[in-house]
Amino acid sequence: MDKLTVIKIGGNVIDDPNALKRFLMAFAGLAGAKLLVHGGGKIATQVADKLGIQTTMVEGRRITDQPMLDVVTMVYGGLVNKQIVAKLQALDVNAIGLTGADGSTVLAKKRPVKDIDYGMVGDIEEVDSGQIQFFLRQDLTPVFAPITYSAAGELLNTNADTMASAIAVDMAIHDNVTLVYCFEKKGVLKDPTDDNSVINELTPALYAEYKAAGTINKGMIPKLDNAFKALENGVSKVIICHADELAKAVNQGAGTTLRS
Ligand SMILES: Nc1ncnc2c1ncn2[C@@H]1O[C@H](COP(=O)(O)OP(=O)(O)O)[C@@H](O)[C@H]1O
Ligand SMILES: CC(=O)N[C@@H](CCC(=O)OP(=O)(O)O)C(=O)O
């Protein structure tokens, strides 16, 4: 089995040009097959705001009506994705920017309306890991925007953490996969106000304890739910770390490593 590193980069880093530059240099320097999934929620909210479109988030998911779908398609699939691809080309990484619709890589289904109508939000149904494998074999580095498509031909907004987890799980059929969530903190923290209180190893039991105590909250909850799901479904290693510590996390160890 070949080794593959699946990396997710969050919106707070993408929104900081210097932090993004440092991260992409580290990504470019990683040995072996790799692919990137990016977020960009913060930028979509800023652009929507400029257009007079209000953002509503419920449990870390954006309520996506048609005007908001247009914004996220332009921001994630266009602006953010192509800027990252161009910057990677300058670092000698032959990146190929994709949404889930491209090459039918990530098929989703519009989230059914229960208590909440999320609008055009997609729950992932199928990842075409063979197609992704094909890109990797051509020495292309896939860069995924968090946009999927439905069998009916709709574009759907999908949480980037979920997209990274689903891709990592399906690629684990072919490869020995490490999944790394990079963001602006040093890992999962015992005390969210103290950046040096990193939890080195997190088990499901410990996660439940910290969640009940309120120490782990907000965006970290869906991130960890996705991260544990990957670990339970064939991904060899899952790390949550600072974007500046990507190389260290992969090669030596840094941030928070999940244990089953
Ligand atoms: N215990 C914790 N340790 C680290 N971050 C936490 C913790 N609890 C909540 N958070 C929050 O989770 C956020 C990460 O989730 P999110 O905003 O969805 O990031 P991203 O855009 O990178 O996916 C952090 O910015 C932080 O504010
Ligand atoms: C359905 C849904 O919520 N999609 C996310 C996709 C972007 C994302 O996940 O970006 P970050 O990783 O930067 O938070 C959103 O529109 O905010």
Describe the structure.
The chain is α/β, with parallel strands linked by helices and 260 residues long. The chain contains nine helices and 14 strands. It is globular, with a radius of gyration of 17 Å. The site of adenosine-5'-diphosphate has 19 residues, from helix 1 and helix 8. One of its GO terms (cellular component) is cytoplasm. It is found in: Cytoplasm. GO terms for molecular function: acetylglutamate kinase activity; ATP binding.
So, CATH architecture? 3-Layer(aba) Sandwich
CATH class call: Alpha Beta
Placed side by side, the strands forming the largest sheet appear as 5-8-2-1-11-13-14-12
Portion of residues in beta strands equals 15-25%
Low-confidence stretches: none
**Helix percent band:** 25-40%
Shape verdict: globular
Instruction: Kindly identify the CATH topology.
Output: Carbamate kinase
Outline the biggest β-sheet: 8 strands, mixed
Order of helices and strands: EHHEHEEHEEEHEEEHEEHHEHE
Task: Specify Rg, calculated over alpha carbons.
Answer: 17 Å
Structural class: alpha/beta
The tally of domains stands at: 1
Please state the average pLDDT score: 97
Helix segment tally: 9
Strands, helices and their partners?
Layout: E1 2-9, H1 11-14, H2 17-29, E2 33-38, H3 41-50, E3 57-58, E4 61-62, H4 66-90, E5 95-98, E6 106-110, E7 122-127, H5 129-137, E8 141-144, E9 147-149, E10 155-157, H6 160-171, E11 175-183, E12 201-202, H7 204-213, H8 220-232, E13 237-242, H9 246-251, E14 256-258
Parallel strand pairs: 1-2, 1-11, 2-8, 5-8, 11-13, 12-14
Antiparallel strand pairs: 3-4, 6-7, 9-10, 13-14
Helix pairs in contact: 3-4, 6-8
